Amino acid sequence: MDYSLEAERLTVRLGEAFPLRDVSLRIEHPTFTVIMGPNGAGKSTLLKVMAGMVAPYSGSIRVLGLDPVRDKTSVRGIIGFLPQRDRIVRSIPLPVKDVVLMGLMARRRPPRVPSPDDYEKAWKALEMVGLTELWDKRFSELSGGQQQRILLARCIVDRPRMLLLDEPFSGIDVKTQAAIIGFLRDLRQRMGLDVYLVTHDVNPLCEAVEKVILLNGGVVSYGPLREVLTEEALNRLYGGGVRLVRSGEACFAITGDVHA
Asked: Which domains does the chain have, with CATH numbers?
């Protein structure tokens, strides 16, 4: 059996803090998995360990059979990573085509001169997110939702096998959220792509997501959405104040002041 993610007693230390402790998971490939938890729960850290950006303090992790520490170059070659919104400079005075091309050029040694084939890949990536008409537009002049879709195009331009998305819906409207979710769902089905998505609000994703990780330093719960998203588990994760409403196959977490 192929596994997308295998973690065994994974512990991560950042300075004096331990954002992840004894995390053990085994997730089959392919998957669309959502990671939920309160602020400071280690969600972003888990993505960074998977991408080879942060090394484990102890324990082990494998991504699609590769060790992100020993096989760092190979892992980065199969992963598209979208960091949190506030980690990205959105005033870049570059045309959209160059922003998308960064997904290819960043993996190469200088001189980084794009070829006609590279431009074709960039065009196809924009085509997949439905924004080819913005090819020559300045990235800095676009709306937040358009920028987010351009950044997704940059993530997929080199045809990765896995996407790691850290709160990709932050600051964008409901219509754009729905478009991105539909796009990700399509990628998962057509390409067998693994998707790991950190979010505070699982409600828009209920019909697309397959598995959910409830994370707070360690794994509180993991499994199919309907099994994991229970009021008991969510209140244990967030410390109370969560009510769950089910409608058919969909479920909605009503959290008041608590992010879920």
From this structure: 3-230 (3.40.50.300)
